[in-house]
Amino acid sequence: MMRIDEASRLLPAPAEVVFAALVDGDARAQWLPPEGMTGTVEWFDARPGGGYRMVLTYDDAGQQGKSGANRDEVSVRFVEVAAPHRLVESADFVSYDPDPTGTMTLTWTVDPRPEGALVTITARDVPPGVSPEDHAAGFASTLANLAEFVGRHRGVSGGRGR
Fold it and tell me: For 74, which of 31, 53, 104, 148 is 20 to 30 Å away at the CA?
């Protein structure tokens, strides 16, 4: 059965600022990694058919990652880029373990609100190796990071791939 995980958060910035952070590789490396991880974007191309590759590294060197050692490597393809309201991505973890593998579709929606923008991330076809609890915690941390990032950067300068 297809699993769907979802999380939302109201962010203190206009939809255009939030969307700019979604499609900027340098920005994404700062806000996407959940608490306890850092991220490195190897390449980034923010257009339909483009995508990115990110390496997420656990701060705790003893933590086992999906891609071995303390790393999660993910390859992403942008399916839809509809600024400033919708971004659809197909994501695959790089792993020798079949549990975290499989293509997961992530849809980011950015809805303008008087006090900022409501951001919702929906993950479809979540691999069985990604627990609902871990995903919920990761989404909450990522959205908190994004809220802090857009609160500090009312505009994104246009990093890698822009």
Answer: 148
